Amino acid sequence: MRQLKILKSTYGSGDCAIDVTDRLQGLTKNGRLSLVVSNSLFTDPCPGKVKTLHFAYELPGSSQFYAQETTENGTVIAPLSGGNRIGIFYTNNTVLPKYLDRVLLQLEKAARNVDIITCPWHAVEGNPFPELPWFYHVSHHLTMTLQILNLLYKAEELGDYEYVFFLEHDVLYPEGYFDIEPFSEDVLETTNYIGLCEEGFQPVHPGFQPLHQLAMRLPVAIEHFTSCIRASLGDPNFSLEPQGRTWAKRESTAPTVHINHGRHFTSYSSFFSKDVIEQTHPYWGEATSWWD
Q1: H or E element at residue 223
Q2: Cα separation of 169 and 55, whole Å?
Q3: Which residue range forms the structural domain that includes residue 141?
Q4: DSSP character for 75?
Q5: Quick check: 29 and 128 in contact, CB under 8 A?
Q6: Are residues 72 and 192 in the same domain?
Q7: Which of 125, 258, 269, 283 has most Cβ atoms within 10 angstroms of its Cβ?
């Protein structure tokens, strides 16, 4: 991993801007910078004024330097992947922290060629990706819709993305999951996935197409989830999965794994069979290494 080097960084407004070069360098992780700009990161050098983070950086082996600026509460990802794919991760933090940490660490491992932004109900300590703040804490599909739209609008601001992946807090994503070919359909479904319960890995019943296995073209995703707001007013149990859209399918090199915890925080548990339980998997290894 090439280590991003901060050349110069300031935070503030006009003459009251302060040098935060060392602080910003300290916030880099695994060669990348992922954060939401705030006074809690840099202190407040100009109370009552809108502050801006300016920074320039270089990558080892490159003679070129890059510059970015982001206002207070804005999102920073550096370097951007340069690709046309982004993943959005949303959670209500009902997953036990040890499992949420493991999901995010695996996602960081898989997301080498895609940008990721997150929207949790509560801050996740050690989250390797930028967190958009979220204050509306009512368990409902409408809340999830609004979280997703919050992330989709941010994706529009951050870069020229064409495709968006929907990433959930109880799913392990393998390396290669984001290696997709361009598609012209509205939706791309990754068809291979399995479950994980205390007994081991378990197959899924056919015919289930959950949101966590889908990618969509970004403009279509915004249109779809905007329509979900209206749907929620008439049906409190409306489906977030897109219906009546053009659809493509593919398999990733390894399956994703839905974690079916003993306590019921997901509506997906009934879709996974316990008729056949495997203790090991060619890609994921020993089931107990993920569950314990």
Answers
A1: helix 218-234
A2: 32
A3: 85-291
A4: E
A5: yes
A6: no
A7: 258
Domain boundary among 78, 109, 132: 78
Give the side-chain half-sphere CA count within 13 A for 188: 22
Distance CA 157, CA 75 (A): 9
Q: What is the pLDDT of residues 66-76, one digit of tens each?
A: 899 999 988 89
Q: What pLDDT shows up at residue 82? A: 81
Q: Where are the alpha helices (DSSP H) in 5-164?
A: 21-26, 39-42, 97-110, 141-158
Q: Report the candidate in 126, 235, 254 with the shortest Cα–Cα distance to residue 194.
A: 254
- Residue holding tokens 């609008």? 153
| 37/99 same-domain check | no
Report the distance separating Cα 137 and Cα 144, nearest Å.
10
- Using 70 as the pLDDT threshold, list the residues of the chain that sit under it: 1-2, 262-270
DSSP summary character for residue 126 = T
Dihedral sign for Cα atoms in the order 209, 215, 216, 222 = positive
* C-alpha closest to that of 128 among 209, 27, 54: 27
My answer on whether 248 and 271 are in the same domain is yes
- What is the rounded distance in angstroms from the CA atom of residue 29 to the CA atom of residue 31? 5
Q: How many other C-beta atoms can be found within 10 angstroms of the C-beta atom of residue 14? A: 9
Q: Mark whether 33 and 137 lie in a shared domain.
A: no
Strands (E), 100-246: 115-120, 163-168, 171-172, 187-190, 193-197, 200-202, 214-217
Task: State the burial class of residue 41 (Cβ atoms within 10 Å of its Cβ: 0-12, 13-18, 19+).
Answer: middle
